[in-house]
Amino acid sequence: MKYNTLGNTGLFVSELCLGTMTFGGKGIWSNMGNVQQDDAQLMIFRALEHGINFIDTADIYSGGVSEEIIGQSLKNLGVRREDVVIATKVCGPMGTGPNEAGNSRAHIMDSVKASLKRLQVDYIDLYQLHNVDTVTPVEESLATLDILVRQGLVRYIGVSNWSAWQIARAIGHSERLNIAKIATSQNYYTLAGRDIERELVPLINSEKLGLLVWSPLAGGLLSGKFGRDKQGGDGSRRTTFDFPPVAMDHAYAVIEVMERIGQQKGVSVARIALAWLLHQSHVTSVIVGAKTINQLDDSIGSIEVSLSPDELAELDAVSKLRPEYPAWMQRTRDVPARPPLGSTVQAAE
Question: In this model, does residue 234 exceed pLDDT 60?
Answer without folding.
Answer: no
